Amino acid sequence: MKKHSPSTPKLKTAWTWIPIKPSAPLPQQHVPSHNQPQTLFALQISPKLPPPRTRVKVLGLTSSVKRVAHMVFKRDHSTVAANGDSPTLLPEDSDPKKLRASSPPTVQIPGSPAGSSSLVSNEDGGGSTSGAAAIAASGLPDFLLQDPISLTQKFKALNVKQRERFDDSQNEDSDFYISEDAEVISRNRYANIHVWNSTRVKLGIDAVDHDYINASHIAVESGQSGPKQYIATQGPKQDQARHLWLMALEQTAGPGVIVMLTRTFEMGREKCYPYFPQDMQDSWRRFDRPEPGTVDPFNFELNLLEYKYDEEARTEIRKIEIKVLQGTHTAAPDATGYVKELGPGDTKIVWHLLFKGWPDWNVPEGDDSDALLKLIELANEKNEVPESPLIVHCSAGVGRSGTFIALDHMLPEINHGAYDSVEGESDPIFDLVDKLRVQRMYMVQSESQFEYLYRIVREKMEERHGIPPENRFLSLPTAPSSSSRVRTPSLRTLSRKPSLEPTLAK
């Protein structure tokens, strides 16, 4: 084996850094070898010059110590550049393994309103004394004071419960049975977004062909106003566009309401076929039963009667008339349907509300978030028969659709004071999302959407309790820890995706 001279050892450089000369030349005896203690030098940087892209050479240290040294040098260097102070050189006999750790960072609270500058240090785990006092005086229930890590754990618990339902999906007697019939599979937009057999919508008019549509009945119980009905469905593909209008004919009473929460194309991919008339220049569509064979045809057309844009709700509003052209309604719908018989010349009005300010997998922010709450009000105004279900869809019909339904249920509950008396470990938001997923898989699909529900409810509860905007979100607690140093979760949590994304059906 080739030996190196002690005076000129062959050293392995951890990084390739631009060399900077220290304030004084180093004596030859201070050149380190592999058998001698090593020294870490902080190098002099002129505060009058812009900070160069400096790097230091750290010799003979373990990889973990190197990372600490690198962070400390970066912090001290940036402090020098900001304050104009000269750094103090470490003494030559200092021990590099006794490097002091970086100070706990000051971070913005995840989930705080857009543009908020409220900060909290994670050093003591509870924020400022005034912030803690504000929370104590706010009267908010405990489920709204959870730290982000606790919400992450609860979201994971929801996914565990969902996987348990999947374990029963091949049992035909189970509420969570998933059909693998070829016709069923062909009508799904995504290969991994199915409907539970117990809550699926059955098409009455087309039952002689096939009664399947990727849509689920959703019922949410309210202690104030009783149960409320929804239908959550996917954005239809081109060859299933008529199924959505048939469902609107059958399943809604009075003027029906369809809430669309997706653009037709996002990031270069079709999220939903444009199944509705676009504007007054493109105001007519016709849908015929394809290849009727021995089955009587049932054909109808759509006519766009009105179009306007609501600035406050940032929503395109279309008033559409469905008119039967040929055939009669002979197949009875399922028990929740409203249509008994339809014939040529019969018409029905459907309001179509298109909201484009909500990106897939994420949440609306700023003015778009305010507009979403106005959209919820608008949808309920257009739904003249309260017992009639709102038809809600995005692309897969689970993430944005589930979040919309959850908000539509919770906002009246807040106004009626239903959450004022929630005590202990009770968490109505967690329970609501779990109930939604019992009726349709993946409702409130991403963790950011789950956190968004807590943010909106907390904001509305603070308004209810009269907390002024400047005092809101002062000190959302950090996660508990046995040590004095509490870890603060990364802000990337807000955009984290679940492990299972919708997979396009083939």
TrEMBL record:
GO molecular function annotation: protein tyrosine phosphatase activity
Domain Tyrosine-protein phosphatase: 151-460
SMART domains referenced in this protein's UniProt entry, alphabetically: PTPc, PTPc_motif
Location of region: Disordered: 79-128, 468-506
Segments forming domain Tyrosine specific protein phosphatases: 370-451
Bias (Polar residues): 478-493
CDD domains: PTP_fungal
Matches recorded under Pfam families: Y_phosphatase (PF00102)
Family, similarity comment: Belongs to the protein-tyrosine phosphatase family. Non-receptor class subfamily.
Matching PANTHER family: RECEPTOR-TYPE TYROSINE-PROTEIN PHOSPHATASE (PTHR19134), TYROSINE-PROTEIN PHOSPHATASE 1 (PTHR19134:SF449)
Protein name: Uncharacterized protein
Species of provenance: Arthrobotrys conoides
